[in-house]
Amino acid sequence: MAKCRYILERLESKKNAFRDYDFSQIESNALAAFFDLAQEFDGIEDFYCLCTAIPKAFFGLEARFYVMEPRMNGLALVAKTEECGPPLNTAPPSLLQPGERPYHTGSSSLVLTIRGKEFLIDQLPFKTKDNVLGLLEIYPDTDVDPHRELFFEKFANRIGFNIHNRFIVDKNIEHLKFIKSLVADIEHNIIVPNIVYKLFLRRLQGKITKNVEIEQSLHSLALDGSCDKDHMKQVLEALMDVNQGLTEEFENIDKHYRNMSLFLETLLRRSHFDQGRLTLRTTPCNIRRDVVQPQLERFVDQCREMGIAIDDKFGGLPSEEIISVVDIGLVAQVYANLFSNALKYTEEVVVSTGETKKYIAYGRETISDYFGSGKYGVKYNVFSTGPHIDPDEREKIFEEGYRGSNSVKRPGTGHGLAFVKNAVEIHGGVVGYEATQYGNNFYFVFPKDNDDMTRP
């Protein structure tokens, strides 16, 4: 009841305020049209245009709308009514700055600061100072008297409330998309690979069973007092074999544990959830030693069982310590996905010598001017032998959920390459596919800044 009473008091206050505003019919119509169309248009660009179109349609005034742009770390022009003037996505001129009140510039413009809701400002997907979300510039201001200026001030307030709500909705939608994608990442890179624990534990159980048998044999020898040297030799050899096997299984489990821990730490990083997207935590590393080799070791046994050779003799990944600055956990999962795909799709081919080959290769090379003049790129690749991907499918293979026609009888979700694309792009890189001699080459290219130095 108290809440209803408070709302009634606020409504009475608003009635008095509107009476004091004394908005004309055209001004009231302008606000009504704004509210109606703000709900009709779903796209944020349409909303931006609406904010500039109201002054134009109802009052014959031109307008420019600047909004906080996180990528520019400042305000950027997002809509305007005139074809001339500054292009979109440019920063406002220095004379346009946020202010406590509407103000007029020397160039005959009225400038209104767009602010958000103070108590929800920390929910925005970017940081802002003094709750500023944007600027609305209206010109010429020669016919804007104090009453019309008050109207535009209230209009700017309503833009602020609307745009703040839209930013929060868009942020929540992006968070939901991210969580859905993250669930797929966890399934693809954590849950499915974790099934290998069953294999390790089954083999470990076999070794323990064998150790129990040896224990019983030694116990029998101790009870009957016999000590046949040949028998004892066999028992000791069996014991050594079992202990070696236990050591190997311990190493397998330890490697898998460290790898899964790295992936879990990377995917469940708090900053991902705070920002609603994958975020980077970069560190200097040797990509070959710290990223490629640990991931390759996970697939060596499977490659051997499937008759797939691993060839890096011509791969270009140098043995010296090339230090790269990357997010080790994300790039490790990039290689895990590429090696996993290569394992599934590698097939035999006949090479120029007439021999039959079935292999995977990987490498690294520096490409001049890849990202523009003087901006080098570092290309990393994973190659596998087999028939080329259909030309009509090559543009789609990095899309979420897409699976090629050659994948019908193979397990998969169509998520692995989409993850690769996302992880590489947030490093500022690009991904790609090449149909090369004998097979398929998947690659990604990082800016040279990420591949910074060679240790002496």
SSE layout:
Elements: H1 2-21, H2 25-40, H3 44-59, E1 62-69, E2 74-80, E3 103-104, E4 110-115, E5 132-139, H4 146-191, H5 196-224, H6 229-267, H7 270-275, E6 283-286, H8 287-305, E7 309-311, E8 322-326, H9 328-345, E9 349-350, E10 356-357, E11 359-367, E12 377-385, H10 416-425, E13 430-436, E14 439-447, E15 451-454
Parallel strand pairs: 7-11
Antiparallel strand pairs: 1-2, 1-5, 3-4, 4-5, 6-8, 8-15, 9-10, 11-12, 12-14, 13-14
Please tag this protein with its features.
456 residues; Beta-Lactamase; Heat Shock Protein 90; 3 domains; 5-stranded antiparallel β-sheet; 10 helices; elongated
Outline the structure in words.
Strands 2-1-5-4-3 form a 5-stranded antiparallel β-sheet. A 5-stranded mixed β-sheet has the order 7-11-12-14-13. Strands 6-8-15 form a 3-stranded antiparallel β-sheet. The radius of gyration is 32 Å and the shape is elongated. It has 3 domains: 19-173, 2-Layer Sandwich (Beta-Lactamase); 193-267; 270-454, Heat Shock Protein 90 (2-Layer Sandwich). It has 456 residues and is α+β, with helices and mostly antiparallel strands. It has helices at residues 2-21, 25-40, 44-59, 146-191, 196-224, 229-267, 270-275, 287-305, 328-345, 416-425; strands at residues 62-69, 74-80, 103-104, 110-115, 132-139, 283-286, 309-311, 322-326, 349-350, 356-357, 359-367, 377-385, 430-436, 439-447, 451-454. The mean pLDDT is 83.
